[in-house]
Amino acid sequence: MRVTHRLTRLVVAFGLAIVASPSAAQTLRTEIITITPPEGWVSSVWRGGTFELGEFTPPGQTGAAYIDVLGYSALPQAASRLDTVDKLRDFESRDASGDCRISAMHERVAPDGWFALARICVGRDGAETDIAELEFAVTTATSQAVYRVWRAHRAPFAELAARTGLANLVPGNLDETSFAALTAAWEPVLAPDLERRNICDLTQPVDCTDFAQSLPPGGERWFEGKGYVIGAWAPGQNRITRARFREFFQLTEDDGTPNMVIIRLGPDDVDWDDASSVDRLLTMFAYGQAADGAFLGVADPEGQLSANERARLRARIIELLRRLVRPGTSPSDIVVALPAG
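Request: output the structure for the sequence above.
Response:
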């Protein structure tokens, strides 16, 4: 049974709300950062709002339990004023010691416009422990935001040191030479994952290569031949019963077809800054995903939106959909498509 909303106004009553982050009123970036995690890794943390943060780990290592982590952050440029590589270097250097009992940092070779570093922290928050966090990171600044990507491994210091071949290397005798040997040993393991990043401007979706360039089979007909601004779909997870799906949508008949949610919107059908409207829409999509599948698409058949307005709409919807990626699940459970042109 498909619950379908066409390019008309949504009028649905919902009994479940998803908590919204307080980002609706802020200025959205038209840039977006995406990370493609290693095969099999899952979402660990995502926080939206003025400051965006996302982390990915192997299964079973979400949250504070991590051993390996790949993460990113985005801070609006207006809130940071870190607009040059020199300023990024100064900021990272000031923050090098953090709250670590023992720490070290050195700069690495980086692409133009980026600052790259390797850093180690032994005894986080001053703890009397030999647990160490070794991090490789890159940072850049655009006119819109400061972006940081990091790949870290946490283990007893002796485990990290074993790769170096240096006998008797312990935290207490870590110096510039031994730290260089440590980072050289681990760089081939950790640093390549930093290349899993992509930053693109949603006004030029063809450059956003981490997103699908076409809708799923049959998706175009859901727009009745009209071009789309953004599309998103989630395969069904079959986590809820048909009865629960029908009850939620107040459906009295069961025609035996898949329990899918198909949402087709025009540019003015939803106030994307209205928390209640957004909650209803996300809940609808989540119910479809929990059943047999969900699709959400926005079309602008009359060309009402400017390129910048389209980009802002894409950014808003991507931000909202990221809320639905639960810790311990794959970020690819929701696929976003942007038009090729």
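Residues 106 and 180 are 8 Å apart (CA to CA).
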